[in-house]
């Protein structure tokens, strides 16, 4: 029960932080957009919870239902958002280093992963015991955020691109561990419990939120670098 509360608490914390970012950015320029953002965010949480209650995604069958019904639509939303975010004035209201510091939460995910392995809810291959070193990357957010605060925007931009690459590798690691464990010399079956609530919040919300913030940060930093060149 404590482990479940850990996943829920981390997800709630990051939801509140995302809302705070949106409030900081949009309240002055577009209060209606802020309300839409809150509705979308809360609606997505309700969708995840409702979907998990059906038990439909709690399976290792191929094609992966949890990917098609959670990760894919989240990524489609992120792709659609890119065209809406570019050039948006509200981006200027978010301090760039805030978006970098956001990624520190991934240390919390990796910590929960370690305890999940001990309870038989997660395959050790996708944690620090295996090939997932996302915790190390996330720890650098403090240093990079400080550098961005000091004006080193190019470093922040490179770091964001690296972060997307790290997430892409982790997605690959999960998928291959689930469906092709022999790649790692493992015959251990991936625990299906990880596709139940609240553990599914990792794939359905926490990971996509990290991708979304990376994308927003990249757009923001590129705009600021472009403005600096033209001034």
UniProtKB/TrEMBL annotation:
The chain crosses the membrane at residues 6-25, 37-60, 66-85, 97-118, 130-149, 161-180, 200-221. It comes from the Bacteria. Keywords: Membrane, Transmembrane, Transmembrane helix. This is Uncharacterized protein.
């Amino acid at each position: 029960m404590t482990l479940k509360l850990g996943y829920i608490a981390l997800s709630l914390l990051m939801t509140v932080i995302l809302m705070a970012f949106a409030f900081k950015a949009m309240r002055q320029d577009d209060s209606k957009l802020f309300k839409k953002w809150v509705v979308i965010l809360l609606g997505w949480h309700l969708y995840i919870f409702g979907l998990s209650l059906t038990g439909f995604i709690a399976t290792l069958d191929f094609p992966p239902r949890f990917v098609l019904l959670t990760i894919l639509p989240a990524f489609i939303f992120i792709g659609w958002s890119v065209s809406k975010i570019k050039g948006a004035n509200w981006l200027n209201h978010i301090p760039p280093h805030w978006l970098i510091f956001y990624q520190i939460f991934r240390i919390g995910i990796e910590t929960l992963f370690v305890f999940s392995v001990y309870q038989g809810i997660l395959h050790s291959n996708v944690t620090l015991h295996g090939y997932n070193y996302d915790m190390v990357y996330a720890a650098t957010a403090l240093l990079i955020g400080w550098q961005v605060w000091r004006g080193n925007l190019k470093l922040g931009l490179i770091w964001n691109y690296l972060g997307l690459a790290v997430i892409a590798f982790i997605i690959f690691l999960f998928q291959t561990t689930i469906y092709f464990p022999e790649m790692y010399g493992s015959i251990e079956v991936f625990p299906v419990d990880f596709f139940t609530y609240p553990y599914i919040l990792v794939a359905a919300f926490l990971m996509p939120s990290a991708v979304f913030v990376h994308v927003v940060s990249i757009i923001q930093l590129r705009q600021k670098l472009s403005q600096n060149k033209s001034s």
